[in-house]
Amino acid sequence: MSEPSLGVALTQTRLHPIYLIIGTAKTLRQAIPFLVVTIFGGAPWWVSVALFALAMVIAIAQWLVKKYSVVGGALLLRSGLVNRSVQVVPISRITAVTASQSLTQRLVGVWELNVQSPGDRLGSAVTLECLSGRRLDELRAALESGDRATLLANPEPGPGPSTIQRYWAWRRTSMASASGNNLQVIAVLTTAEMLIATATGSSISLILLLVVVVWFQFSEYLPIRASEFMNDIVAPQGVVAVLVTLVVVAIAAGVVVGALRLNRFTLVRDGDVLRSSRGLLGKQAATIAISRIQAVRIVEGFSRMLLGYCSLQVEVAGIGRANVNQRMLFPLARTDRAESLIRRALPELPWPSQPLRALPARVRRRYLTLPLGYATGFTVLMLFLPGWWKLMAAIPLPLGYVLGVARAREARWWVDDQSVVLRWRRLLNRSTVIGYRGGVHLTELSSSPSKARAGVAGFKMRFSSGRGAGIRYMVDSDALLLLRTVGRAVV
Amino acid sequence: MLSNVTSRPSAGQTPGVPSGGLGLPRPGSAAGAAEEAEPSSATAARGAEGQTDLVASAFPSAAAGEPDPLLIAGDLPTERHRLPARVTRYWRWRAVYSSLPVLVPLIIGAMVLPWGPWWVRWGIVGVFVAVIAACIILLPPIRYRVFWYAVSSTEVDIQNGIIFTKRNVVPMRRVQTLLTERGPIADHYRLTNLKIRTAAGSVRLSGLDRAEADELCDRISRLTDLADDV
Fold first, then answer.
1. Considering the domain B81-229 in this protein, what is its CATH number?
2. Which CATH architecture does the domain made up of A8-172 adopt?
3. Which of residues 351-380 of A touch B (CB under 8 A)?
4. Cα–Cα distance between B103 and B128 in angstroms, integer?
5. Residues in A 243-302 with any Cβ partner in B closer than 8 A
6. B contact test, residue of A294, A447, A472 with most B CBs within 10 A
7. Is 0.85 exceeded by the ipTM?
8. Predicted structure pTM score
């Protein structure tokens, strides 16, 4: 690891003045209860004006106080009117930097920058709301250069022209294709793939649930035109027509959401960082340091697996369960091409030197216990259903059997000097984690008297992202081998 | 060495983890070299031979002939340490106080609420009291017998659980913070709870001897003074 440079990479800088408008809006949002009282309570007009002026003054004061700088190998953010605070994030601890632009930010031409560091799984360590494109480039260049050993020779690093050029090149890359320098475009999501990703993702089913609830419970709150269309044209055709319409609405909305989120997802390898950009109206550009990536996760959802697709994620400290978008390496790739994509993006990642190991037959049998147990419980409950609904009791046991067999057949593992690989199925999703053997933070071997008698044990490992991987049943000596080797320093 | 940390008697083989089948053979042994089985049958053979094949092929450095490079702290029974015996009393009292927020409203409800005949109300309270009492009496000794911890210069190895046992290994270089806490009951028994936190999660050692916990904290914090590579 490089020693951080101690010079001033970026002097104290304020956010873009547009922050005054955003800050005022934020303060006014906090003052909504007072405004409601003053406006509807019949207070004289000048009271509301005074409140607005106060919000403006607070925003101006906050803007004056809030300054960021890159000094001594750390990002400093000074803020606070009454309680002054200085947030210091050592650059060497930064795991990911994400720049994003909402539609309004895009219209005004400012960016929001999130700086992520380990130990903060839910939010970003530091968020800078309003940065112009030029300031963003300067700051990102300073953050990168502050961690470069080469700058030790130069006491005043500053953003050199080459770095700036690199960033301009990178920004162009996010729009079109890369050219020259150190940039290598790994993959670009086509429109067809974007549509497949949306159709096989969870957003359409969630939106369908939402519109069904809205139509059947809160239809009086719908816009008049929509409600007239549904009541006069669709509803007389019957319930099926209503449901079909709702499905069409959900698919249309899902495609729009998917396009907004994933449009032109571009993955670029730029030296020792991975960059991705995406978005239709809003825009997001994420940067992840290669040295921070501890594992790659290949997730094959049920519908995607049927079509031969999977999604790729990375395990990075600080980007945990909450940050679905940030941990995305690539949203949709053909399963047979996933390996070559990962190899191009992360040639450093160690791959297993031999085919993954399956489980022996005596261990596979144990996978039936849990699903069949649950299925028996559901079967008993369903026998209490009235009338013909009782027939549904025939469903759980075959389903449980299929799930148990699938889990047992698909569980795989491998460990060697450099890499550790686990593959397992939960319910519908099958995940494969390929990681650095030494990059694991916590390991667990689980046992019970019955497991011990059968010579079986479970193994789990956790990364600093807070997410884990595990195999529920495997030969106990294999599980112990994993416990003894995974997470230990690679010599 | 560990004997400096605690003078507690070390625990022997613990229920839940078999001994013979789990011991890895020395890499590169004659049995392993002779083994030519295909992968799934190698693991199915369960035990020394199949495992050696894997160790030798996957860990060439381990096969070089060093003495058991794959052993971790808790693999040596002499390095396993138990908690002080008085911890069962501490766990019992803590369980008694923890059950009060459930029992007190239940008893008040049985006295005040005019619901059903009296024997149903007090019967429910009785069942709850009986179950909680049984747990308080029976579980702490089992938990005490299952629990052990071992600390080496490279990792902390902890086994806990009651019926379902879990053995956690925390690599020493991954330890982020150490948290010790003791409430009035723990204080009465001169015990301390230690929480070892990593970026991925945390493990707890509940009921360490106070002096032992201080020394353990000191030792772990000295050993974790390494370069960060989170």
1. 2.30.29
2. Roll (2.30)
3. 353-355, 357-362
4. 8
5. 291-292
6. A447
7. no
8. 0.74
